[in-house]
Write a structure and sequence with these properties.
Layout: H1 2-40, H2 59-76
């Protein structure tokens, strides 16, 4: 029984070591890819984020949505 436990512990350590090494390699690979992306496609050249449109919003729609949120919150209590 002791040999079985020692084999189980060895297998556990081997498995955890394998996962640790893989995750370490993954972190380094992610950092390298991030560096390469920032080098070849800096943020200034990236596509602009869509801006929220604040003009042209229907006031009645805002009232309806506000009432729906208030009712939802009242039902949650």
């Amino acid at each position: 029984m002791s040999e079985l436990v020692s084999q189980g512990l060895a297998l556990t350590v081997f498995g955890m070591g394998t996962v640790f090494v893989f995750l370490t390699i993954l972190v380094f690979a992610t950092n390298i890819m991030s560096t390469l992306v920032n080098k070849f496609a800096p943020e200034e050249a990236a596509a602009p984020a869509p801006q929220a449109q604040t003009q042209g919003v229907d006031p009645q729609l805002v009232k309806v949505l506000s009432a729906a949120v208030k009712q939802y919150r009242a039902n949650q209590k």
